[in-house]
Specification:
Number of helices: 15
Number of domains: 3
Radius of gyration: 27 Å
Strand order of the largest sheet: 1-2
Structural class: mainly alpha
Order of helices and strands: HHHHHHHHHHHHHHHEE
Largest sheet: 2 strands, antiparallel
Helix content: 40-55%
Shape: globular
Length: 432
């Protein structure tokens, strides 16, 4: 029974009242917007925790509180370098102590364009670690330089337990530390080389499984979907171009036109957009589980080429691809370049060179002691001797005290150790 509040329904008569009642019952509410991401507060790091992450977070907070404008510097002449080293002195000691403990990364996703928690502090600490390595080695304290190299390597690999930005920063710190110590290897004693080799092998074992990285980044992707949906609902679409760039303007225009269309189409748009984030993450997880040579055979998601959110997806969902050497747009799977070459993934390259460094140190130490290098790689541990591009052992040749060990690199072909000035291609080698 319908209760009239103003008397009008009674005056319309029984038939008219029935018609109005049926019309009201048939009226559909617009579909609700789904929630793809709920903002989280970064966990407060605990003092005296057995988790290395808490030490890393406290070090970052201390740097961010004291560095001021240095957090935004991109060049570091000597006076800036000295200032950063002074600000980072105590946090670096905290960070170094933390690397002696296991790390369970406590990931917090954020809506773009915000940086992940602690990122600015960690980036500055990474630069300070490189300078500590260089300063110690230049002063003749190669043992201390080796120890700082291990601190940087453990720290960098631990950051790979976060999202894509954390992992990219972590791998960059590992690479920068390696390049900082390489010029001083010949000054090391055989015992120092052995210790650094063993430490690098232990640091490599800290690398979290890629599934954890991908799961975290999927949360970050959905945070991006939420940011676009919120901008749409709150009529802030023009703000998106300010931080995503002009390439998304066609996608923004489509959303503006979508405002005038059926609410069901608006809800379907964001469901499809979010589903693409999930499918992209699932694909990258499968890709990351196999060596580079097998990635082209991993079926990729079959995204429609002209889906309306494609430009948003390219900006927000391709963050994992550079880590694992995946190329191309978001229209298909891919994985190989057109000439049959893999793209050099940051994760693969850093893993390969860290393993190569550990082997180089161990073999050079043996040459110092015995006058000859190992004849083969047979005795080398598999976790050090495996080329991440092929899944097989690195290429190795030795003749008395002389040896060469390298990765076949992105072309998956042994080019006899030939490489360019960056030591990247055709074969990938240490930057000696």
């Amino acid at each position: 029974m319908v209760r009239a509040t103003d008397g009008r329904l009674r005056l319309l008569g029984p038939l008219a009242a029935a018609v109005l009642l049926l019309a009201a019952c048939g009226r559909r509410e617009p579909p609700p917007y789904e929630t793809w991401f709920v903002p989280e507060q970064p966990p407060l790091p605990a003092e005296g925790s057995g988790n290395a992450f808490d030490g890393y977070a406290r070090a970052a907070l201390e740097v961010e509180a004291g560095a001021g404008e240095a957090l935004g510097w991109s060049s570091f002449p000597s006076e800036r370098r000295n200032r950063v080293l002074a600000v980072c002195s105590r946090p670096l000691a905290r960070l170094a102590a933390a690397t002696a403990r296991p790390c369970a990364f406590r990931f917090t996703a954020v809506e773009p364009p915000r940086l992940p928690p602690y990122h600015r502090g960690w980036a500055l600490l990474g630069k300070a670690l490189v300078w500590r390595i260089q300063d110690a080695a230049a002063s003749g304290d190669t043992a201390q330089a080796a120890e700082w190299t291990l601190v940087a390597t453990r720290f960098g690999f631990d950051l790979c337990g976060g999202g894509a930005m954390d992992a990219t920063l972590g791998l960059t710190i590992v690479d920068d530390a390696r390049r900082a110590v390489l010029p001083f290897l010949t000054r090391m004693q055989a015992a120092e080389m052995d210790a650094l080799s063993r430490g690098l092998r232990e640091a490599l074992r800290r690398l979290p499984p890629s599934q954890r990285l991908v799961a975290n980044e999927q949360k970050a992707m959905l945070a991006g979907v939420q940011a676009v949906q919120d901008a749409f609902r709150e009529d802030r679409l023009d703000e998106l171009a300010e931080w995503m760039g002009s390439t998304v303007r066609p996608a923004i225009q489509h959303l503006k036109e979508l405002r005038r269309k059926d609410p069901e189409r608006r809800a379907a748009y964001f469901r499809g957009f979010a589903q693409e984030a999930i499918e992209e993450a699932r694909w990258i997880e499968r890709v990351s589980a196999v060596p580079g040579v097998g990635r082209a055979s991993v079926p990729g998601p079959n995204f429609a080429r002209e889906r309306p959110w494609r430009r948003f997806a390219f900006a927000l969902f391709t963050t994992l691809r550079p880590l694992f050497g995946v190329h191309g747009g978001l229209g298909s799977g891919g994985g190989f370049l057109e000439d049959g070459r893999l793209r050099l993934g940051l994760m693969d390259a850093t893993l390969a060179r860290t393993r190569l460094l550990a082997l180089h140190l161990a073999f050079t130490a043996q040459v110092r002691r015995e006058g000859r290098a190992p004849r083969t790689l047979d005795a080398a541990p598999a976790d050090l001797a495996t080329d991440p591009f092929t899944g097989r052992r690195f290429v190795y040749r030795a003749d008395g005290p002389d040896f060469v060990v390298y990765s076949v690199g992105a072309d998956l072909r042994d080019d006899g150790g030939q490489t360019d000035e960056t030591s990247r291609e055709p074969d990938l080698r240490l930057e000696l």
